[in-house]
Amino acid sequence: MTHLNKIVLVCVLGISLLLAIGAHEAMAQQKPFAGQTLTVGIWSGPYAQNFEASISKPFEAMTGAKLAHKYSWDFTPEILAAPPDDPPVDVTLAADADYVLGVERKLWQPIRYANVPNAGKIFPITKKLSPTTEFGIPFDVGIHVLMYRKDKISKAPTSWADLMRDEFKGKIAIERWYPYWVYVGSYLTKYSPKKQAIYSPEGRNAIIDEMKKLSKRWFFCYEKGAEFISALDAGEILIGNYWNGSATFKIQEEIEKKGKAVTYGLVFPKEGSVAYLDHLSVVRGTKKRDLGEAFINYAMSTEAQRAFLLKHFQIVTNQEVVKDVPPLMKPFYPATEDGWKKIDFIDAKVLEPLRKELEERFVKEVLAK
């Protein structure tokens, strides 16, 4: 090989190496979290399936990161039991009492909003509805609607007071979990606004009294959504409070099969209704803070929130997806600030200290009768 050929070969090899390094760096820049694993805490059941399909998998494809998921309805006990520098999850959903507890016990790291620019797309009012957005970003909302058998009743309900109609006696199901029954009781009182009953001893006595009356009319208090749907399908119940996403999904299935909803209906009662507000938070002690915030930023994106809305029929906080709301959800979807004000978000700061007292009264005075 001539001297010139050697020089050419060295140059070719050098250029190839530089191109390879450049390609590697470009890929690394494209997928900066490739090879890393993030553990995310999400609600179980269909929520988990739809969350993973619409948010987690696209994030993995985009970033090269691997997401591991844990399922529960409250991750705070696990986080509290774990070493502070080795949490069981890196990022988690937190709502109402567990979010407030996490703030008080310093379980969440402050959100570095410079890393989560998509947080700027949420409805501004959700920041006021949240106990604090320093440690979590409002992600989605679940509202209690009244779901009913439209094929077996005389007319559609419009109010919580309709639970007292004769045709519903013995055919009602009520969500068991605290504090949702507290709000149901408040909607049956004479207070104005109805939720005001929660904020005084006299009002809470009125709530217990109304729940006593309602207990004589219901078929059961349910703890699992499957129990509610099974009883509704069988005609054992005709009406009850149920989550908007699950109710919408059930009715949407019928619309797709039959072209219209003939069996089931839902309504957001005129007095308003109770809702939870989920936050996405980065957990203390995680070594994946940057990746965690990148995930939250994607979860708040218009793309991800639209996908979750259309997959799970969940109300989301990104205001850019309002135009994509399915027709069935439009009557109760909070598309404006006034719409958000009609929803009663759980006041965990007030109600959590009252949990023991009110739960004991509910068991002794309502369920035992």
How is this structure best described in words?
The chain has 369 residues and is α/β, with parallel strands linked by helices. It has two domains: 37-141 and 276-333, Periplasmic binding protein-like II (D-Maltodextrin-Binding Protein, domain 2, 3-Layer(aba) Sandwich); 142-275 and 346-367, 3-Layer(aba) Sandwich (D-Maltodextrin-Binding Protein, domain 2), CATH 3.40.190. Helices cover 43% and strands 18% of the residues. It has 14 helices and twelve strands. It has helices spanning 3-30, 46-63, 76-81, 96-104, 124-129, 180-187, 201-215, 225-234, 244-258, 289-299, 302-312, 337-341, 348-351, 355-367; strands spanning 37-43, 66-72, 91-95, 108-109, 137-149, 172-175, 218-222, 239-243, 264-267, 273-283, 315-316, 343-345. Strands 1, 2, 3, 4, 5, 6, 7, 8, 9, 10, 11 and 12 form a twelve-stranded mixed beta sheet that branches. Helix 2 (46-63) links the parallel strand 1 (37-43) and strand 2 (66-72). Helix 2 packs antiparallel against helix 11 (302-312). It is globular and about 65 Å long. The model is unreliable at 6-28 (pLDDT under 50).
Q: Give the % helix.
A: 40-55%
Number of helices: 14
Largest sheet: 12 strands, mixed
The count of DSSP E runs of length 2 or more, i.e. the number of strands, is 12
| Beta-strand residue fraction | 15-25%
Order of helices and strands: HEHEHEHEHEEHHEHEHEEHHEHEHH
Summarize, please.
This protein is of the alpha/beta class and about 375 residues long.
